[in-house]
Amino acid sequence: MPANSKPPPGPPPGPAPEPPPHGPIRITASADHAGLRVDRFLADTIGTISRSRVKTLIDEGRLRGDTGPVTQPAEPVRAGGIYVLDLPAPIDAVPRPQSIPFPILYEDADLIVLDKPAGLVVHPAPGNLDGTLVNALLAHCGSSLTGIGAERRPGIVHRLDKDTSGVMVVAKTQLASDALTTAFATRDLERAYIALVWGLPQPLSGEIEGAIGRDQRDRKRMAVVDHGGKFALTRYRTMRGWHTSLALLECRLATGRTHQIRVHLSKMGHPIVGDPLYLRRVPTAAKAMNQPLRGRLLDFPRQALHAASLGFKHPRTGRPISFEAALPADMQALLDAVEADLSGG
Predict the structure, then answer these.
(1) pLDDT tens digits, one per residue of 224-275
(2) Co-location of 227 and 285 in the same domain
(3) Residue 218 catalytic?
(4) Domain CATH code at residue 71
(5) Which listed residue (110, 161, 215, 275) is catalytic?
(6) Pair 307, 299: CB distance under 8 Å
(7) pTM score
């Protein structure tokens, strides 16, 4: 090729890959698909999402068959079966830093312990793409959090529900992330929650055991299930009771399932005051109360659940450390009103 000549142009670039679809996707299985695992069948048929992603969506309750919800990724496909998979819209992989104040109980080079306010979402997800604790942490810590854990959850080793307040720990280094993740997985730590519930448990202290899985009738809810759930155990004790109307409980987790305390207490017949998912009707205990207190309890805008304490071994030193968070103002004011109205029981 002469020195001044240019190489022949290469083939034109191919089309850009299509983004993954979102929204409901309807797929009908043929006879050739019969007997395949449903997660493999859907991943192969859709072609733009992985089998592990399909499994996650099934666990989130996003798959329905023509006979009802599909809850098991290994369920065999039925020839002629119709499947509808609801794919959420994609969100940015890397959250942006946002200056959002949050109360810090302790901080060093490895971790942050905070008192999460009720209403603060922990990490970005559909419906809450920013304004989360992760956005606040990225602004507070800068680039030191990147690469620690998943991109959308840097440093998050456990979480609290949006409307649950209280103590949380966040890792700032990979060493802390690995150690704390292991501690939560093996329950090598101490956690106590405070809950205000309807009714008075009998016995006043004990254990609640029941496998927890996705509620087949409402994918936003979890439920105690007979098949396909994960073992769950909650220990409780009654700290204060008001007649048979209300009780203040301390709950400790032997396992850590989604909504575990809320599901177990509801199944026991003592749902948490204000719980928007697991309190679906006016409790019998409320009907005997005077109107001002009854209205205040029924109108409480969130579940009255607070992560009161957390203790663990420091990931670098191995020294046991523990932290407590006082009840938030809204729960304390509610308890003060209950005590003033029902004291003496």
Answers:
(1) 999 888 999 999 999 999 999 999 999 999 998 999 999 999 999 999 999 9
(2) yes
(3) no
(4) 3.10.290.10
(5) 161
(6) no
(7) 0.77
